[in-house]
Amino acid sequence: MCNTVAMNPGIDHTLRGGWTLEGGKLPAHALRWLRTRTGLSEHPTPVAPDSVLVVPEPELGEAARADLVAVVGEEHVLLDRTARLGRAGGLSYVDLLRHRGCGQLAVPDAVVLPADPDEVLAVLKACAEHNVGVVPFGGGTSVVGGVSALRGDKPAVIALDLVRLNRLVSVDPVSRLAVLQAGVRAPEAERLLAAHGFTLGHFPQSFERATIGGFAATRSAGQASSGYGRFEDMVEGLRLATPVGELKLGVAPATAAGPGLKDLVVGSEGAFGVISEVTLRVRRAPTHRRYEGVFLDGWDRGHEAVRDLAQQRVLADVTRLSDAEETEISLALTGGLKSQALTGYLRARRVTDPCLLILGWEANSAAELAARRAATLRVLRAHKPVRLGKVLGEAWRHGRYNGPRQRDALLDAGVCVETLETATHWSQLSTLRSAVRGALLRSLPGAVVMCHVSHAYETGASLYFTVLVPRATEDPIGQWQTAKSAACRAIAPLGTISHHHAVGTDHAPYLPGEVGELGVRVIESVKRELDPTGVLNPGKLLPVPPKG
């Protein structure tokens, strides 16, 4: 059993629309639905102070601390309990449970805050000299164990917080390039770029907290990636600090000068080095937007429609298809368009298994928006959509970042709530969805398992699952880990173990199955070259530490 603790400080826990928080709690209609649908107890989990958490004394040696202080200054080497606890893990369900007193929390021995790329490089060299592990820390939004303060075989580990690397270094409006330091958070990046008339167009659900460096290190995919591209598509160059020196990559828009080292660094999750600056392709900030909701009858017709849009190259910037269960639950909990009346309206139009498709276009003129929207809807027409205009689309847009905050209220109510994602080719998509749903439902009897297509490509698409089930009282961490392992085993023969959440610790055991043993040895060889003492993000990405 475990208690819960207060929410992490510094996070805005207010919500707009949908499951709106009322004084930090779920509204009554949402709780009633959860109790009816999942058998959730009417007794919420009690809240306990964070003083119940065990935070060991720091084990950073005095010589290592002195060298780090010489690099960043006394005030930027933090040993206090609060600073260290605030960088202890990410935002997965298991991380949140551990912050609520369940299981053991991995707490860094110190938090180090460098001011610029040169200081990042110097910190890594000092840590290598003293054999101190280094966990790069940006927004702390990893949901796969990517920022857990694991030591591996090191006597101590620091969290290298990049919050002070918060500058827009330069903008090249002719080439449409911007250089941003790795610690810039996404909302601030958008604000800085907007002053020059540009946008990245990268809006994942972690947008409010995640950083530029984190996006690059994990191959992030935003909700509008059908229009703007995934984050790796935006990366034109970067600086990578390693214990043995600095890599500076990206001198031209395209090159045939050997294998793409830039692509090797993007997605390396801090295991090869610390990304300190990123050169990004930017776009003109849109002046016109339209988001709307469309209903299709059934999962098969829905994903066939999205495939048609992708293969005819008329996807909207946001193209998101919810399966029937996610659609039903979303409408029931939000009261979307008076959900009972909407159900009757759809049935009258022969939609008996409604799947909601959110479409969003962003453009720089009314004519451009109209032309793109018309092209999308022209192809969609063959799939017999029921269009409901802007109401549902705008509701989704305004609540697009609510998910991470809703989890706090669900956890308070005693709900196990977590997500996972994958991707595969179109011919395997429904097989993969069925396999993952089945694995989760067998592991978590009575659970609600929702799914949506979050990103679409000409050859395939990603599937994003959300799970709700009453939290086990005896072993809540084991409850989810058993289910997640079952889902991963279902995914492995059919798709990728991660489309955009990355590898971290959760998915590392499945990496050999995806890239092969030879592929793992290639990754190990790169790590040995860039990180010969193995101080960088111990325990992440690779299934086992590389042999010496």
UniProtKB/TrEMBL annotation:
Range of residues in the leader sequence: none
Positions of the FAD-binding PCMH-type domain: 104-285
Binding site for FAD: P136, F137, G138, G139, G140, T141, S142, E269, G270, A271, F272, G273, V274, I275
Cofactor(s) needed by this chain: FAD
InterPro entries per the UniProt record, alphabetical: Alkyl-DHAP_Synthase, FAD-bd_oxidored_4_C, FAD-bd_PCMH, FAD-bd_PCMH-like_sf, FAD-bd_PCMH_sub2, FAD-linked_Oxase-like_C, Oxid_FAD_bind_N, Vanillyl_alc_oxidase_C-sub2
SUPFAM superfamilies: FAD-binding/transporter-associated domain-like, FAD-linked oxidases, C-terminal domain
Keywords: FAD, Flavoprotein
Annotated positions for site Important for enzyme activity: R320
The protein, known as: Glycolate oxidase, subunit GlcD
Pfam families linked to this entry: FAD-oxidase_C (PF02913), FAD_binding_4 (PF01565)
Binding positions for substrate per the UniProt entry: R407
Any one Gene Ontology BP term: lipid biosynthetic process
Residues annotated as catalytic: Y464
Keyword Flavoprotein: yes
Single GO molecular function: alkylglycerone-phosphate synthase activity
Superkingdom: Bacteria
Family: Belongs to the FAD-binding oxidoreductase/transferase type 4 family.
